What we know:
This protein has about 950 residues and is of the alpha/beta class. Helices cover about 50% and strands about 10% of the residues. It contains 34 helices and 24 strands. Helix 19 (about 480-500) crosses helix 25, helix 28 (about 795-805) crosses helix 33 (about 915-925) and helix 30 runs antiparallel to helix 31. It is globular. Mean pLDDT is about 80; it is low at about 255-260 and about 600-615.
Amino acid sequence: MTEDLSPAERYAASRRRAAEQATSLGAFREMYAFGLDPFQVEACQALEAGKGVLVAAPTGSGKTIVGEFAVHLALGQGKKCFYTTPIKALSNQKYADLAKRYGADRVGLLTGDNSVNSDAPVVVMTTEVLRNMLYAGSQSLLGLGYVVMDEVHYLSDRFRGAVWEEVIIHLPESVTLVSLSATVSNAEEFGDWLDTVRGDTEVIVSEHRPVPLFQHVLAGRRVYDLFEEGEGQKKAVNPDLTRMARMESSRPSWGRDKRRGRGVREADRERERRQRTRVWTPGRPEVIERLDADGLLPAITFIFSRAGCEAAVQQCLYAGLRLNDDQARAEVRAIVEERTSAIPAEDLHVLGYYEWLEGLERGIAAHHAGMLPTFKEVVEELFVRGLVKAVFATETLALGINMPARSVVLEKLVKWNGEQHADITPGEYTQLTGRAGRRGIDVEGHAVVLWQRGMNPEHLAGLAGTRTYPLRSSFRPSYNMAVNLVEQFGRHRSRELLETSFAQFQADRSVVGISRQVQRNEEGLAGYKESMTCHLGDFEEYARLRRQLKDRETELARQGVSQRRAAAAGALEKLKPGDVIHVPTGKYAGLALVLDPGLPAGRSNGHRGFDQHDGPRPLVLTAERQVKRLAPIDFPVPVEALERMRIPRSFNARSPQSRRDLASALRTKAGHLVPERHRKQRAAAADDRELARLRTELRAHPCHGCADREDHARWAERYHRLVRDTHQLERRIEGRTNTIARTFDRIVALLTELDYLRGDEVTPNGRRLARLYGELDLLASECLRAGVWEQLDPAELAACASALVYEARAADDATAPKVPSGRAKAALGDMVRIWGRLDALEEDFKISQTEGVGQREPDLGFAWAAYMWASGKGLDEVLREAEMPAGDFVRWCKQVIDVLGQIAAAPVDGESTVPKNARRAVDALLRGVVAYSSVG
């Protein structure tokens, strides 16, 4: 290549190479055996130039290289770098990577339950830890030069997303921010916001996957390509798949067509059988065997159910599937035994260790949140080493863990979202399939979707071909946030800071289009006003009189209809069984006998369709022998009984003979009766003084005599409609403007009422709240204030603290949760009562949980498990009583430990025993599986 260059060009290229080698980026590139991609180089150059960067790139594209360059720059400049991640497992993984590269003495780790070398120049931490540091004014922030926010798209998370925005807003201006995100469709918008709050920020978006991804559908024994081979951007769906879907949807239901001959039906059935031998949903062991035969392992199969993941492993074991040879099996056993050596032997059986190990030795494993963290970490390590080749996982695996595969399998395109079974979104599909294709190992990655009955290939192609994953802010002020902000900045400045949030930025941007519409409307109003101008007087005033007159007439007519309905309903309520009536209108108009008056408190007589909210719905027998349930709409006018008849005890509404006999008796008894004609009442409008006044004023107005009056009136009506539409748009603008600040104002008002704030002053109660983080921060503070937890022993305090963090995966109102007796039970009851008082107060101050603000009801579902574990009970007994997987138990224990740590550190009045007991409770919980499931 260089031979084709002129001497001058070769000299210029040499100068460029020499200049680059003299930069930090040049030295950084030497540390890697592979070359950097253009987007990585662009981002690193922007960082070295002193700019912040937002890098949005597909999963597995290597965007963390940019974060590692920030670490390199910080160490070179003698500054600190904090590398934040959304989950502890990812923090542990990143800590291991950086410690290996830069040395364990220069890298630290800080998570909720782990602290390793926290004074190091490079510290990996969860985002919440950094947020808490910022609010506490930690000395560790001194000398901080760079913050890397990995997986920054987490700020869309409705439970935890606000933490990312808090960090971005409150970081000192001197800190350079490196934001790493999955591919999002509004990266430029997010970059514009970062530019506003953090200063000069370069947005680098890369859609390129370093390992190309191919999409497939597995049906029966065959793997079909989702798209036809061909050139061009718009790919066509494989016609074989379209044909299969069409044939499946058009399959006749043989049993229904009785006119077809037997021979024809047999031929159709044979054709059906042949088709079915080609198309079916293969079983899980079959899928793995097929992928293995095609060289598509290792694979991650996403199953949106923990139980489904465990069942898949068992199905593969029962099928005799073996993916490892003897050497690999021995290697797996050695690694597993080393990593689990700290687990007591008596706990291994409880944890399902031996079944789990058998699967690992065969190269098969599950991965989900219900597993023990140690087990999950072992699965991840073995998968990366190629010793586990088939993993069945829930979608949580797609969130950040570095565990790429050659193939990703999706069993279904529907998942439970907490409320209903819903189709996965294009963003979720992209996130899940993004794991396919290992950079530097695989030439290509493969996404395989299993054929399911009713599958629409066009819909799948839409998921695979769409890259819409918009970043939406979930930021909402909280009580803890409010006191911390007021303590640092005062109320006015805090309000201004909140208005710089991404949530408000997005709301304000959405207002721009509405504002333009308002502007266009105002221009239209000026034209309408000119067209309705009358030379005789103020036509706007005249049009207002016309509208008032029309509105009054409409109101009186509505009142009349309402009164007539009420009168008709009142008459129906007086009916009794045996009354002979005349139904005035409808399909069953004419003579009828009341069998059941159909009152809300009455009998429905076995007939369906009765709704108490509809008013009386009498069940009648008509003169034509029909038994029908009538509706209020059949009685526009009041109805009265014309005659009375006895209904025989033997009458059966379902018997044609009974109906015929009683209808005959009805015609004989009352066929000659003529109903009294309902006299129409005088209209209320005839005597209404307001209506008379408006008519007089209208006739007296100068514009009433204008020859062009009706023409002007048409323009006036258009003017009025546009004014009404414009006011609605203005209300929408008002509703979206300053929404975050208005919520903050309501929170501050409530905290002032409870004496947490006095103007810009934070009271001792407020300073305690400032150290309590979590959904139920205010409830925890109020419990400390009221002394609810005084006199509790450590195990009882652990039970109470669990109610502040635990949330059941599914609502179960069938039975009350089991709780410890005595003092703990009384304290838990007090907590629920305090929450009830706070809930009523939030309602008074218009603080709504539906907006993501406010205190949810404490959940007592983990109290008994926390109490037993803190009391020293064995794992087997606790898990059996708790009825939950070991992984969930460990996770909730760690969250209880976290909140107990906050309670221990929160300032309290006088000689409180709570801080000491909280620390003792932490020690009591941090044992066995809970203690050894942490890295570090």
